[in-house]
Amino acid sequence: MVWLILIFVVSGVLWYRTSERVLALALAVITLLFVTYLVSFSTVERALTPALIASFLIGTSFYVTKFVPVKGPNRKQRRKPRARLVRQGGELQLNIRGYQILERIGEGGMAVVHLARRLEDEKLVAIKVPLEKHFGDNKVLRRFVQEAATLKRLEHPNIVRVFDYNADTQPFYMIMEYVKGQSLEGYMLSQPVSVPSVLNISRAVCDALRYIHSQGLVHRDVKPSNIMLMRDQITQGDIESYQVRLMDFGIAVGQAVSRLSVGAGRVGTPIYMSPEQAKGGSVDARSDIYSLGMVMYEMAAGRTPFAGSYDVVVHQQVFDVPTPPRQYNVRIPISLNDLIMRMLEKDPANRPTLDEVLRLIDSGDLVDNSIPSLPSTLVVVTNSGQNFIRVLDTQGNLLQGLGNMESGVLPTIPVACHYLPDGNLLVGVVDYKTANAPMLRILNSEMELVGGFAPYGLKEGNLLNLVSVAVTPSKRIYALDLDTCMVQEYTLEGEMVRKFGGRGDGQGTFREPRMIAANDEFVFVLDTQLREVQRFSPDGTYISRVAFKQSKDAQALQTLDGVGVDLKGNVLVSDASSSRIRVMSPAGKPVSAVLIDPWHGEPSGELMIDVDHEGHIYAARKGGQLIRKYSADGQLMGMLDALAPVLAFSVRRTVPVSVKA
Q1: Is 622 annotated to bind ligand?
Q2: Which are the contacts of 229, defined by CB distance < 8 A and separation ≥ 6?
Q3: How far is CA 202 from the centre of its chain?
Q4: pTM score, two decimals?
Q5: CA 23 to centroid of chain Cα atoms
Q6: Cis amide prior to 324 (ω within 30 degrees)
Q7: Which domains does the chain have, with CATH numbers?
Q8: Could you report the per-residue pLDDT of 46-90, keeping only the tens digit for each?
């Protein structure tokens, strides 16, 4: 009886393997013969139990052999379309049973993509196969299989679908949805991306990322070349969300992972890497938010925030704060600019969630490009051919870009720029080529010419070489002419009121007048050759001068290179010899001093000085691109980057100013 029980147990285990079911059936037959022996030479009662065992073995063996389908990997492998590579003309040609290979449509560093037709329904598909050189590279193949397996289980309208894949025998392949289009990378190379398209593409990718994060995955390689746009849907209008597909999940992994290496470097593209990924630390869904922010930045600004070699970009990702994209493209709404900068926070905890990004996009708030009303703004003239007049807030953020050399309104980049009380813009230009062309021009908010006066010439009211302009709260306009050494006063209507100065050795005359500043009480003129600032009454009467000796007993004077006026009527004089802005009372008494630390590589042009409604001092070196910001007591508050050499600079104050005595 013990032997019968052992035969039964062994037979019950062996039937799970197809090749040994026959053995199970043979054991059942042996048991049946034993039963027959017992019946023939012993009692029926002793043969009852072996008879039951034999009946069970025969029945189960027959059932398993004939009717139960096999679910093991061998049958699954046989169901996949057979693929083979045939070398023709020195190249490997792909053949997959059930598919007609039409053409090769793409090739990257790891795989090649073929366009094919599925014969059973004539559907066009894309078939991705690893490059031949990677057939023996286990790391590349593992990434390929991971991408296929990941995409196979994802279903989202903005994610490229995988219908089937083979990872059992060479050649490996995946059969994917065919997206007839181009990558976002190629699209950006051919044309700028409109703001509505930026938002629609971002919304699609954001929604796709939110879906894969809900599946416990992190993409880790969000970049323009992995975002496809359906070409047959792209028209002259904006790109819609349904035209976007996110692809390439070759390095997508679980929500909290450490760095995965492929080859000798980090996985992912450094320009779009998050700082934590660039450092080789653990990443989660917030890393994808950063990468999406980098893609949005490039779409909006038309350039990436960082550039250089791999190591340089990695260093920038970890340590450098990117320049706001609106500094490169003033058409970007301020709210969109701010969202992108939040997504690019170095600390993952400070980045918005994908739900918040989607909410902002859907709210419509990101398309509002209105300029906020601020008590003070900076008006900066740069040497850029596009938007050379830039309006910044007091933190250095670009609010508005004006001016285009191609429009013909301005023949050259202005040498001076001030907002008038009525909101129009007064610019000073030097135009020697056009007859009777005004050097002082008034432009409206649309940069249309609405007025002009003081043409080039020797007649009354004309100018020869305009170098500086000042506008007072009482609407007086003072223009400084270097060639005639004269100051000419004009009304807003362009009528010349008076002129004063002339060539001489001081006390109301000049050798080389370079800069003018004024308020309703005084006019100050910087003469760089005489090394002094002369003070005049509004009607041009000479009052006094400000100058500094190099030493107590010396007659030589310090070099001066800038002048301005603060809200209290003090004159701000830039002393280049001591690298200070000296604040002097109207009577010429010293009030305070502001240290100007020289910046390495900064040009040696004049220092343009102005103040905002709170008395903060701004100083910009002509030809440099940094604007220093100081508190009223002279403490450095920050350095604002104009992103181009500054040629002229002023502060517009739009609120009544209350000045403490």
Answers
A1: no
A2: 181, 182, 183, 184, 187, 201, 239, 243, 244, 245
A3: 12
A4: 0.69
A5: 69
A6: no
A7: 2-70 (no CATH), 81-177 (3.30.200.20), 188-367 (1.10.510.10), 376-653 (2.120.10.30)
A8: 656 665 665 665 555 544 443 333 333 344 444 556 677 777 666
